[in-house]
User: What shape does this take?
Amino acid sequence: MTDALATADAPADLVLTGGRIHLFDDAATAASSIAIRDGLVVAHDDDARTLAPRARRVIDLDGRTVLPGINDAHLHAAWLGARWPALFFGDHEASHDEDSGPLVTTNRERRAALQRAWRLLASLGITSYTEPGIGPGEDGGPTGCFGTSMLDTYLDLHREGVQTSRVTLLRLFGTIDGEGDLEAFRTGIQAPAPATDDRWLCIPGVKIFADGIPPMRTAWVREPYADGSSGALLTRGPDGALDAFRQMVRLAHDADLQVAVHATGDRSIAEFLSVLEEADAGPRRHPHYVVHADLAFDDLIERMRAIGVGAAVQPLIAAFTHAWASGTLGAERAARAWPLARMIDRGILTTVTSDAPIATPDWRASVDAAVRLLSEAGIADSTASRRALVRRMTVDAARQDGASEWKGTLSAGFVGDLCVLSADPLDPGTRVAGIDVDATVVGGRIVFERGTTPDVDAEAVAAEATA
Ligand SMILES: [Zn+2]
Assistant: This one.
């Protein structure tokens, strides 16, 4: 492969050689070497090896695997950093009681929470994520993790240039997992998002909470639950919940904001789509999308496809709540819920995400859960099916970020965001959770090296011991 950029004289900042480097370009290329200069991929294979002798740093992969940096397209980093290692599902379940007061109150605590999350994500090979919902509706909120002051902390750290993760941040004008008021939303979106360097902190749109979750019977559904209830919208306004919801989506769309709607129930998803259909919405640089989309049945997936609406889904949450949701939805409907296989098959923009700290931010566990979800849908475990899943955490996630031209693959000219793994997660039968993340690189800079970078868990334990 010949890259014109490789002929430039300056030494490369980083060269990785002797491994299996999955570029995740359209041709599904695997290179054996890669070179990064000034934050960008400049060469592969022989051209990259030529740059090794003069490079500032060379990593001998010794047969190991490289993937593009993982992009978790729905992850509450501030909340995760404040709670870690406590999660809601999985190991360390809910060891923090939210009633015992806010997790963070001071600027120092907010900075510490974000920086702890960034160290944790770097140790996992994650180089980008979406922080889905920060704004004035959560000022004085119970956790302290989602209010305006957290947005200010993000902006401070962004301006200081200390980020080790690229962030897409959605503004929130209601409450997290709670009600949202139409007038507050209308006023809120009139204020422009702060100016930032989009490659590190991009603030393209808004998060709207439509409903709750199926196991709690709070997802708004077309067919009632076993007890006869149907859930409801969380939006509020003078002409009722549905009018408020429809107006919010339309206002944000007309203001050219990306709209991400927390919608698990099929009725909520249908109403979101109908507003966009009436607005003649089509493909956009920052696509609108449904967060969770648990009950996105076939007719809804076709409508999403027609107007370019994506879905950010969480296989780990599906695994943890499936049996519980069967009790409220009935077995037949629960069997059609979490239609990841269908979404991939129909080619809609789909991101596989953690929703951490709800589930672990460890994408390796998400891949394993997604492999099981696909196999339940009759899709055999293969390199192709695994590649399709990892695309959901790289290529499609970059598309959701409106960043397809510069991140998500390791093609020449793309940012040098990658992770080095002890084994290849694309090999069928591999338990991905058993693979080590050996190094993480963001913009050509090594932000984590196993055995060298201090362990974030050990740090948390030490902090607790001295508290
Ligand atoms: Zn969430």
